[in-house]
Write a structure and sequence with these properties.
The chain has one domain (7-122): Globin-like. It has 6 helices and no strands. The protein has helices at 7-23, 27-32, 41-56, 65-69, 76-93, 97-122.
Length: 130
């Protein structure tokens, strides 16, 4: 296997990951409730841009990922499944420094999102910030 090297590689793992998400009994319904008319392409396009920015340090993604996730009915078990599916996808396709970096970054994102969600749940008068 080889490392993540191009936008085609990003599309490969993003598409593979979200195929798994769509078929997952825990994550699928959460995502499906937010994907308008079952059209996943706008979300996939954002994810391609996000990972291009994160892994290749190329400008492109603009947004606040946490703010999109904050109102969702998700728990630590959702993040655990998300991480499992993401890591399985990466490990099935790639190996190398960028593949490892992608897995480290999703782990960090999951920890950060869970911490923020717990904080705002414990402090309902405080409005979330990106």
């Amino acid at each position: 296997m080889r490392d993540i090297e191009s936008m085609e590689d990003i599309k490969l793992f993003v598409n593979g990951f979200y195929e798994k998400v769509q078929g997952d009994d825990l994550l699928g319904p959460v995502f499906a409730s937010k994907i308008e008319d079952g059209n996943w392409q706008p979300h996939l396009d954002k994810m391609y841009s996000f990972w291009k920015t994160v892994l290749f340090h190329e400008a492109g993604y603009k947004g606040s990922p946490y703010m999109k996730h904050h109102p969702l009915p998700i728990k630590p078990s959702h993040f655990e499944r998300w991480l499992k599916l993401f890591n399985e996808t990466i490990d099935g396709l790639f190996e190398g420094a960028l593949a490892d970096d992608a897995k480290r970054r999703v782990e960090s994102m999951a920890q950060l999102f869970m911490a923020k969600m717990e904080y705002y749940k414990a402090n309902p008068k405080i409005k979330p910030i990106a």
